[in-house]
Amino acid sequence: MSKSTNLSEAVKHSIEIYFKDLQGERAHGIYSMVIESVEKTLIEEILKRTQGNQSEAAEMLGINRNTLRTKMKKFKFL
Fold this sequence. Notes:
Helices cover 74% and strands 0% of the residues. It has helices spanning 3-22, 30-49, 54-61, 65-74.
């Protein structure tokens, strides 16, 4: 099983749990909720692995360092 398949399965499993927890209520804003949650967790974990080195974290994420800093401010990591 590939690494991307593992990630896809984890997301699928989390979404299934989310819908079960709704207990019939109508879901709203799922896309932004999932993207923001995953993005925040991803950035947090990469920063831990790089011991807070923003340049290294940005490189690992494949984004510009300024973009990373903007996201860090958004998620109150700065």
